[in-house]
Amino acid sequence: MLGSGVIHTVTLKQTECRKRNKKIAAAVYLYQADNDGEWGELRFDFENGTAEIVKLADWNTTTSNIFAKTAIRYIQGFPEARLLKFVVVPFWKGWT
Fold it and tell me: Out of the domains of life, which is the source (predicted)?
């Protein structure tokens, strides 16, 4: 299925986590599209509810933007107290 382009994965690896008053205030994640190529970088500000794409994986805006947006939705769907250090997220291309 991965080879047919139907199911994709985005790999997330937390590289930084800042706390304020015992709550996670911000985090930085590296992400990789389909377990291949260069890693991109995402920054999350949980106090303001924002996320920023700092660097696109594979430097490909037409493809990697899908992976970055999927990663952002996935991380923002978790309560800050349960943020994962590493995860591989499968998704269907039509889901984005």
Answer: Bacteria
pTM of the model: 0.84
pLDDT confidence bin for 74, thresholds 50/70/90: very high
DSSP letter for 5, please: T
Structure-token match 């911000």, residue found: 26
Type of residue at 10: V
DSSP-assigned letters across all residues of 65-85:
HHHHHHHHHHHHTS-GGG--S
Residue 63's H or E segment, with its range, is helix 61-76
Q: pLDDT band for position 38 (50/70/90)?
A: very high
